[in-house]
Structures are given as structure tokens and as C-alpha cells.
Write a structure and sequence with these properties.
By secondary structure, the chain is of the alpha+beta class. Helices cover about 45% and strands about 20% of the residues.
């Protein structure tokens, strides 16, 4: 520890030598007791602050901050070239040990090395030159704040290649990320432990010290130790050889082939006792396997067939062969995400990989197909070509989210995936992106908490939505050619968004300014609403403005954006789509249609990421058309009209009379997409009116629509895939709205199943029967029987349905008991805690119980999420989504104040507060509008339109 003469003079001391001596006297006791350099630095800073006016003055005397304190990013001049990793998980002690040798290249002289580590005990650090000479190390220590392992050599490192050896130990029970233990119960009732991993985005550093950033793409050689008897080891690459009785008797070291260049978060290590089914892809004869526990092996055949088929499809679509010699997929009993695209070894939660033709629902089948398709798309987008930094996360997730629809459509062309895109991606993200606390698709992030927050609807669903819009106006073949060019140019490399735009511009026959246009969609938040003026003599004028769900409030304080909008339309005269670009610099756009045109429907198929507001005459025309001949529009266009009308009423651009009158045509609607589109919005209104005197009239309004739907769909589980999804959805809505016959039937079927577990309830109807049957006839005894069957159930999808049933009993005492079960991690897996809490929350008597539990047990909940506050924040956001009072708003604010956000701030928390304020304002702004509609309409018992 030393202070320069200049710094000491700055202290206005007589003798710098004397001060140096005094400081040494103060510091030496700390050093003698093993204090870290950073602790000494902090002590000196605090000491000097007592003598100086400001922290800045104190800092200037102690010295400038070190590089590992200044920046959370790794330096660019130290590049990892290859990892040689050895890991030995001990499934009895729940610990693992290992060592890693990293070949690095130093491209300029360096006084230190930085790499990542978290929750590891590093026991040895060695550095050698390429020719084997030892490099003396002065200090090697952890800087926990930035998750760095800092290595300071005695002498400055010269440019060149080096080998860095680090030995370490860690725990397998430190959450569901990094290298961790998962446990399942086999058919003999014995608990079986496995070791598995999940690294994205920043958890590879929990398994081995590494350069844990996506811009580094080294190769990997992996060795895993497994118990010889009954276990296998899996990694990204095929097994190269096995060494029995190594490192000890009863253990086998498995050595895997060297990998292709890839990022750390794609590495995967698994030691398990699973079994597999196998096939080979048609195009390149790639070995394709799906692994599961022995008890679940019979449920892998569907995902095996889907996976191999979609792999072939993506190879053809991208025009680039799958680059690895094998593709494995594996169902992990405990898994924090839906799935993870580890290259060559994709990991899944059991509910997203396993499908049982007799026991699984159509919704579960579709979930399996879409997640498998999503993860396989990542093998090209994300794995072969990787984002340079997390601000371009959408290049991974937006593309995979869009391509998943193409993969499923190829395998199941009758599922109408193009139309379902509106329900699953477009409409949910447009709701989020209409708030003040949304964010651009390309968003800066540095701290791990900020990086995790980027894994949201904007990166996934908005990314997919703008790609869908881009493909529509480019044309599918030109879009595909541009994607191929991009992947081919950047394979095994990193890329940024502009690289994609350049590739797409390179194939555009019309020389479209892709970057100019798409920057308006990716570098600014939100989206426009297009205001259409009255049609007159075949002329229409259109203007754009930013759409916000709070409408005109504080409009002057909101950033004003404009977009390049690819405008499409059809008319009463032709179903042929017309197109014109509405440029961001244009104040207005004028278009011409035949003078005989009676209506113009913009945003055909809602392929554009924007809303359309029509003049009153046009809205009334659409209402009449839907009432009398709704099939004149496609299901997507019907859903588009409904979605826009409700959203524009929310923002105050039109009155609620428009969407509520329009939605009455639903008595004739049979298609899932418009039905679900409307009822999502109607459910939101219901939650706002819950404690207001208009709720009875509103429920009567819903009953009038649902009665005819209920009669039409019935309880027979038959029809196409989409028809089965529609039936399931309508029955749930009818029961929820208090339909007597629906709830009676659910109760009767539940009692028959309680009396006889073999009583056949179709998988598509079980959630309705379990949930609303329990609410109708549930007793503690019935609940106990269902709990017993839940514990014995092996099918993860069936267990989720039973959770909804257990959460629906109308007994607060039992619900309190169920919450305790959900927090102990034994009966209910930690991965299902959020799901369980939300299931209880959706019970009318359970919502306040859950909210009180979370507020009074925050630390307990945070510990369940392994200290990850972002997961607590997302749970709170879901729980308070329908809060409508200032008292509830204050409760949320007090909770966030008591437990401050980690990192700079939490966007999730900001969105949570904004949503409650929006709800409060909605009641003030729209209650009279709603009330007037129902008063004019009567009691909703009139004959249907």
C-alpha cells in the first residue's frame, strides 16, 4: 500500500513520510488477518473521508479504481481459444470438483487477467506460456461484485498464447442454474439424483471459471465423471472414449469429442440414469435421440418424430446443414425454464418435451411441438450465429420465436399456426409495448440482473412480430434468401442486428432500405396507431401517432416516435391485398380505392405491428358486417378488428360501445382466434368492474354470448385440433362466468373420478373438471384424495392440471395448507412454485391469501428462487395485475421500498406500478362509458343480434 507524494501533499499534511508511516500502522493489522486488497481500499477511503469533505476527494487520494471495479465487461484483448474441462459431480455429497485449462491469447501487453466466477471455491490458479514456462502470479482473488476472478502476474504479460489452469469445487444445490442436482422418484419409490446444467445467460461461471460472455466462441473438450453402475454422461458432442475405474473404483471418466466453436452458455454437462429412443434425420442421417427417465421413456416418441422432421425442414429452409454429428433432447425433472438450446444436447422441462397420446391434452401437444421447434431453430440462430452482446438478444429469441411457427406448420399444416400467432405472440406483446415502461427491441444491458430482464416479451414476441411483418412486405422467398446469406456469412461467428439488415438488403430485388425501416421498429419502443379519415369518393387519408394504452394522458411528456409502416388493405371490391409504405417522415398518406368501395380493412391478417383507428361510420359498418356475414373476413381479420377496437377503447380513442357491440357477433363465431381475442379483453374489463355495481349487467352480457357457444361446443372431445382447443377454452369461460349447467357437469364428472380413478375424463377436459368441479363440490376429503393422486402421478402435464384443481377449493384453511406445501420444495417442485401460486391466486378467495403471503414472506420466496429477485418481481407483477385501488398500489410500493431492486433499477417493477395506475385510471375514465352502454342495452337479456 503506498500513496504518492502528490496525493499526500493534497492532504495538506506536513510530512508525507509521516503519513505513509501512520497508514502502514493502520493497514498492517488488516493485512495480517488476511484482509483483501479491496477491504483495505475501503478502509482507507472511509478513514480519509473523515478528514476530507467528499468521497470524491477521498477516492482521489486512495487512488483510481481498478479495471475490474470500473467495468462489468471483460477486456477484449484477452481471448479464450479452447477450454479443457473436467467435472466430477458427487451425487451423495451434493458437491462437485473440477479443473479447467483455458488456452488464451493475449493480444496486447496486460498487467492482469479477468474471467468470471460465481459461487465457486477456487483452490489453485496457474499460468504458463505456450512453451510450458511458469508465469509467476502476484495475486489471484475474487472480486465478487462483478463476478470476476482477478489474476495479477508479477510481470506484465507480453502478447502471445498462454495456458490458464484453475482448480475449483462447488455445490450442486445452489439453485436451478449452473451445475446443479435434480431429483425424481422412480417406480420403486426411490429418489434418484442426477447432475445437470443450465447456463444462459450468465451461469456457466457457476460451473467452471470462464470468459462468460457471448462474444467469445472457443472450442471445448469435456470430461465428466459418472458412477459406473446405472449412469450415463452426456455433453454437447458424442462420447470419444470412457475410462473405467477412473478416478476411482466404481467411477468412470467419460471423454467427449472436441466441440465446434461456441459460447460458454451453450455448454452442457449431464450425469443421469436416463434411457432414450433414437432415429436418424432424412437429409443427412444425423443421429437423433430423446432421453427421459425410465418411467417416462414411452412419452418421448412424439417429440422424437417432431424433432427429426423439423430438423430436416430447417436444414432445407436455411440452406445450411445441421453442423453437429448428433442431436440429443432430454427431459429434466427440475428445470427453471421451458427449455434451453444447448448445442447438440437440448434440455427441456418435462412438460415441454413429453407427450402421451392418452393422457396429454391438445394444448400440451402443441406446447411440445412449438418448444421443440423453437429450440431447434436456435441451433442455427443463436448457436451457429451468436449475438455479439445481450443488447441484440432478439436476434436469438425473436428469430427462434418466429421460426417455431414455420417448423410446426410444416409438421402440422392443419393447426392454423399462422392464425394462432396473434393469440400467442402478437396480441400479448402489443399490450406490453403500449406502456411507458416498455423498451426498444435493442436495449443496453450490462449487469446480470439487467441481462435477465431482457428475456421478456419484447425480445421474444415483438422480435417475432416485426420479423413476420418484414417477411410479409419483402416476400417469403427473398426473406429466406436473406436469412440464408446472413447465417452463411456469420456461421461460427458473432453478429449484430445491422449485419442481418445488410444481408437482407443484399437480396432485396426492389433494393428496399431494410435498415432504415427496421431501425424504426427495433431501436425505439412502442408502435403506431394509424388514424383513417372518412372514405370520400374513393379517397382515404391516413396519419400516424404513437399508441399508448393510457391514451391522451400526459401526451406532451411522452417521446414522439414515427415509423416506416408497411400498410396493407383489402376492400369490399376485392380480397387481393394492396400495399403501400407509409414513411416515417410523411405527415399523412393518401390512398385511392374504387369509388364503389363501401369498406376498407387495413392491416390484412394483422401482419403489421400497428393498430388502425377508423372513423365512426367505418366502425359501425364493420359491426354490421360481423353481425350479418362475419365469414367475409378471415379469422385473423376478425380477431384484428376486435383487438384494435378494444385497445382503442382502452386508450380513449373510441367509446366502449364500439367493441362491446362488435363482440356480440361472437354468438355466431366458431373459430378459436377471434373468440379468445375478444374474451381476453372482456376478462380484463371484468376484473376492473369486479367490485362495482355494473358487474351483474356485465356478467349477463357475457352469459348471453357464452350460452350459445356452450351449447354449440358441448362436452364431447371431438373435431380438429383447433376445434378441441376452442371447446376447452369455451367450457372454462362458461364455468368461470357461473354457467350453471357447466359447473354442474364439472362437479358431477369430478365426483365420478374421485370415486373411481379409472373413470375416463378426456385429457382436453380435465383442467375444466378438476378446477371448476373442485370449486363446485370440493370438500377437504375430496381435496385430500386429489392430493394423494397428485403425489402418485408421474406425468408432469397431468400434475399441473391437478395443481389447478387443488388450488380451486373454496376453503381458506386448505389453501393456506397448500401454500405451505408449495414452499417446502418436496411435494411440489420449486420450478412449479410460481405456477402454483398463480393457480391459488385465480381462486376468488385465494388472491388475497397469496398476496399477503408474498408480502410477509418475501425473503422466503426469494430463497425459493435461489435469491433471484427478478423472479420475485415477475411473480408480484402477475399477482397484482388486476389491482384497482390506491390502497393496493401503496401496498406494492411499500413492498418494493422495503426490498429495493438489485442493480440500478427493475423495469419489471416499473411496469408493475404503471399497470396498477392504469387500472385505477381506467375505472375513473371508462366506468361511466361502460355503465351507459349497459343501461342503453338493457339487462342484456334481449335477443341476440
Amino acid at each position: 500500500v503506498s500513496l504518492s507524494s502528490r496525493q499526500l501533499v493534497a492532504m495538506d499534511m506536513v510530512s508525507s513520510t509521516m503519513v505513509t508511516l501512520v497508514i502502514w500502522v493502520m493497514v498492517l493489522p488488516f493485512m495480517a488477518h488476511g484482509a483483501e486488497i479491496t477491504e483495505v481500499d475501503q478502509f482507507l477511503t472511509e478513514y480519509l473521508e473523515r478528514a476530507l469533505v467528499t468521497r470524491q476527494e477521498a477516492r482521489s487520494i486512495v487512488g483510481s479504481r481498478k479495471p475490474w471495479e470500473e467495468d462489468v465487461r471483460l477486456p477484449r484483448h484477452i481471448i479464450p481459444l479452447h477450454y479443457d474441462i473436467y467435472l466430477h459431480p458427487d451425487l451423495e455429497t451434493d458437491l462437485f470438483s473440477g479443473h479447467v485449462t483455458i488456452q488464451i491469447e493475449v493480444t496486447q501487453p496486460s498487467q492482469h487477467l479477468l474471467l468470471h466466477t460465481k459461487d465457486l471455491n477456487i483452490t489453485r490458479t496457474e499460468l504458463t506460456t505456450e512453451d510450458g514456462h511458469q508465469v509467476d502470479i502476484l495475486h489471484a482473488f475474487e472480486f465478487g461484485k462483478n463476478q470476476f476472478w482477478v489474476i495479477q502476474p508479477v510481470a506484465t504479460l507480453k502478447s502471445g498464447k498462454y495456458f490458464l489452469l484453475i482448480k475449483f469445487t462447488g455445490s450442486l444445490t445452489n439453485g436451478l442454474d449452473g451445475f446443479y442436482k435434480s431429483v425424481y422418484t422412480n417406480n420403486k419409490g426411490r429418489e434418484v439424483a442426477i447432475a445437470t446444467s443450465k447456463f444462459e445467460p450468465t451461469s456457466a461461471r457457476k460451473a467452471f471459471p470462464c470468459f462468460d460472455e457471448p462474444s467469445f466462441k472457443p472450442t471445448f473438450s469435456v470430461s465428466l465423471v459418472r458412477p459406473t453402475k446405472g449412469y450415463i454422461a452426456l455433453s454437447n458432442m458424442p462420447v470419444q472414449k470412457e475410462l473405467p475405474n477412473t478416478p476411482a473404483k466404481g467411477l468412470t471418466t467419460v471423454i467427449f469429442a472436441k466441440s465446434v466453436p461456441m459460447v460458454t452458455y451453450l455448454a452442457c454437462f449431464i450425469v443421469c440414469d436416463f434411457e432414450f429412443e433414437e432415429t436418424f434425420t432424412s437429409n443427412h442421417n444425423t443421429r437423433f435421440r430423446v432421453y427421459a427417465t425410465r418411467e417416462q421413456k414411452h412419452r418421448v416418441n412424439y417429440s422424437l418424430d417432431v424433432g427429426a422432421n423439423i430438423t430436416d425442414y430447417f436444414e432445407s429452409y436455411f440452406g445450411i446443414p445441421y453442423p453437429l454429428p448428433k442431436q440429443d433432447m432430454i427431459a429434466i425433472p427440475d428445470f427453471s425454464s421451458g427449455a434451453m438450446e444447448h448445442w447438440g444436447l437440448i434440455t427441456y422441462r418435462e412438460t415441454t418435451l413429453l407427450y402421451d397420446q392418452l393422457e396429454s391434452s391438445s394444448a400440451n401437444q402443441q406446447r411440445v411441438a412449438t418448444v421443440v421447434s423453437h429450440e431447434l431453430a436456435h441451433q442455427w440462430f443463436g448457436n451457429l450465429v451468436t449475438l455479439a452482446w445481450w443488447d441484440d438478444l432478439w436476434l436469438n429469441e425473436g428469430f427462434a420465436s418466429y421460426m417455431e411457427y414455420k417448423g410446426v406448420k410444416h409438421y402440422h399444416p392443419d393447426w392454423e399456426m399462422d392464425a394462432q400467432f396473434l393469440l400467442l405472440d402478437l396480441h400479448p406483446v402489443m399490450d406490453l409495448d403500449s406502456t411507458l415502461h416498455s423498451h426498444p427491441i435493442i436495449q443496453k444491458a450490462t449487469h446480470p440482473e439487467q441481462i435477465y430482464e431482457l428475456f421478456d416479451k419484447i425480445s421474444y414476441q415483438k422480435g417475432a412480430s416485426v420479423l413476420r411483418m418484414l417477411e410479409n412486405f419483402m416476400g417469403p422467398e427473398q426473406f429466406r434468401n436473406g436469412v440464408h446469406l446472413f447465417l452463411d456469412q456469420y456461421k461460427y461467428k458473432n453478429a449484430v442486428t445491422d449485419d442481418l439488415w445488410k444481408a437482407l438488403e443484399g437480396v432485396s430485388e426492389e433494393q428496399l432500405p431494410i435498415k432504415q425501416m427496421m431501425d424504426t421498429w427495433t431501436r425505439q419502443m412502442g408502435y403506431p396507431v394509424l388514424h383513417v379519415e372518412d372514405l370520400h369518393q374513393g379517397k382515404l387519408t391516413i396519419r400516424q401517432e404513437r399508441y399508448l394504452n393510457n391514451g391522451h394522458k400526459n401526451k406532451e411528456n411522452v417521446a414522439k416516435f414515427s415509423w416506416d409502416v408497411p400498410l396493407t388493405w383489402i376492400t369490399s371490391e376485392t380480397n387481393k391485398t394492396s400495399f403501400q409504405m407509409f414513411g416515417q417522415t410523411e405527415d399523412k398518406l393518401r390512398i385511392a380505392v374504387p369509388k364503389t368501395t363501401s369498406w376498407v380493412k387495413f392491416n390484412v391478417g394483422q401482419l403489421g405491428y400497428y393498430r388502425v383507428n377508423y372513423p365512426a361510420k367505418a366502425w359501425n359498418n364493420f359491426i354490421d358486417l360481423l353481425r350479418t356475414q362475419h365469414t367475409i373476413f378471415s379469422p385473423m381479420d376478425r380477431a384484428s378488428l376486435l383487438n384494435d377496437a378494444f385497445a382503442l377503447a382502452e386508450s380513449g380513442h373510441i367509446t366502449y360501445t364500439v367493441p362491446l357491440t362488435m363482440a356480440e357477433y361472437l354468438v355466431h363465431e366458431t373459430h378459436l382466434v377471434p373468440i379468445k381475442t375478444a374474451f381476453r379483453k372482456l376478462s380484463g374489463i371484468e376484473s376492473y368492474l369486479e367490485n362495482m355495481d355494473t358487474i351483474g349487467l356485465f356478467k349477463s352480457y357475457l352469459e348471453n354470448i357464452l350460452e350459445q357457444m356452450y351449447t354449440r361446443v358441448g362436452w364431447a372431445d371431438q373435431g380438429t385440433h383447433v376445434e378441441k382447443l376452442t371447446r376447452s377454452y369455451v367450457l372454462k369461460k362458461a364455468c368461470k362466468n357461473g354457467h350453471n349447467q357447466c359447473n354442474k357437469q364439472a362437479g358431477e364428472l369430478l365426483l365420478k373420478w374421485i370415486d373411481n380413478e379409472s373413470f375416463p375424463i378426456p385429457a382436453n377436459l380435465r383442467t375444466t373438471v378438476y378446477k371448476y368441479g373442485m370449486a363446485a363440490v370440493g370438500t377437504e376429503e375430496i381435496w385430500g384424495t386429489m392430493l394423494h393422486r397428485f403425489v402418485a402421478e408421474k406425468n408432469a402435464d397431468c400434475k399441473l392440471r391437478l395443481i389447478k384443481g387443488l388450488a380451486s377449493i373454496q376453503n381458506e384453511k386448505v389453501l393456506q395448507k397448500f401454500i405451505k406445501m408449495a414452499t417446502n420444495g418436496t411435494i411440489i417442485r420449486v420450478q412449479d412454485f410460481h405456477y402454483t401460486m398463480m393457480a391459488i391466486h385465480h381462486n376468488p378467495i385465494g388472491s388475497k391469501i397469496v398476496w399477503k403471503f408474498v408480502r410477509t414472506n418475501w425473503k422466503k420466496v426469494e430463497n425459493l428462487f435461489s435469491g433471484k429477485q427478478r423472479k420475485c418481481n415477475r411473480l408480484v407483477k402477475s399477482l397484482v395485475d388486476a389491482f384497482t385501488t390506491k390502497k393496493e398500489l401503496q401496498e406494492v410500493k411499500e413492498l418494493f421500498k422495503k426490498y429495493p431492486a438489485k442493480g440500478e433499477k427493475s423495469r419489471t417493477r416499473e411496469q408493475t406500478i404503471e399497470k396498477i395506475i392504469y387500472n385505477i385510471n381506467w375505472q375513473a375514465d371508462h366506468f361511466e362509458d361502460i355503465k351507459t352502454f349497459f343501461e342503453r342495452r338493457g339487462t342484456s337479456d334481449n335477443s341476440s343480434p
